Amino acid sequence: MIYRYSTDRRRDEREDRKQLQWIFRERRIERGPNITRGDYDDVEVKSAAGGLPQSLTSTLSALANHPGGGTIILGLDEATGFRPVQLSDPQALKQGLAHNARSFSPPVQLTIGDAEVDGAPVIVAIVHECDPSAKPCRIAASGTAYMRGYDGDFPLSDLEEQAFLAARKPPLFDRQSVTGATRGDLDGDLVTAFLRSVRERDPHGLGRFPDDVELLRRAGVTLPDGTPTVAGLLALGVHPHEWFPRFVIQASAEPLPTDPAGSRARNQTTITGAIPRMLEDALRWARRTFDTQQPTGDSRNRGRLMSLRASSPAGQDSLDA
């Protein structure tokens, strides 16, 4: 078998090329009429001569849930001993794979490349393992998650799904250090209030440590060298927006009937600061903006919350209420 391989992601080219070589050589996926080997638990081979197979939907979920992920190869016919088949539109197949990958929760991460087997084009898609904190990877439309068995995909049983959920680990990005930040970037009043609250509410747990420096470190506010973590700055920082400018609360209310014609919103505001102070300011804004009592039952002047938007530290995700 003669093959060539290329990928649009240059930085992963060597790694993916080695993986492809391993698939073809070590797994002995060789062409020939007498070869009857099926797929392996981390490799799925499809001819795709008639387009993108429907069965790949479950395969994408199963491989994303599989330890180490897996590989999908389109353009080889297992029934004929993995001989190449004619792909009418390889580009459309790649686009279809990329589109399907977005129909999962969380989305499946793919590295899609081109290969040649005996001069015929094939498509190789590396399916990256889903982050353990987000497993199982489900089909968004149905909520079904799959696991990989030998040459097959199987819906997760209740026990298998519970095992995935039990193995989830919370994201730890908020324990990373913030470059350039120092202990002086933490708000002294907030730190004092935090230490007092911990010692009052959890005297036999985190509050058992008498040394402030050790308690802050064990709470994830600072690292051993005293550098504030992401969580420390966001919760107790003097001005967290120096590093996370989009981590704010944006609020607005629908206009009242008495507002000028054409008004789209009222009392628009952007709330900044450490998280505890942003929450306090948001509550004060809500009390000023909305009536809390309506003795006559007339709700025309109560107003409605139009948007309350909190951006993420990375500025990419948000929570809308």
Comma- or semicolon-separated keywords:
alpha+beta; 321 residues; 8 helices; 5-stranded mixed β-sheet; disordered C terminus
Description:
The chain has 321 residues and is of the alpha+beta class. 27% of the residues lie in helices and 21% in strands. It has 8 helices and 15 strands. The chain has a 5-stranded mixed beta sheet with strand order 1-7-8-3-2. A 4-stranded antiparallel beta sheet has the order 13-12-14-15, covered by helices on one side. The chain is elongated and about 75 Å long.
Summarize the structure.
The chain is α+β, with helices and mostly antiparallel strands and 321 residues long. Helices cover 27% and strands 21% of the residues. The strands form five sheets. A five-stranded mixed sheet has the order 1-7-8-3-2. Strands 13-12-14-15 form a four-stranded antiparallel sheet, covered by helices on one side. It has a two-stranded antiparallel ribbon with strand order 4-5.
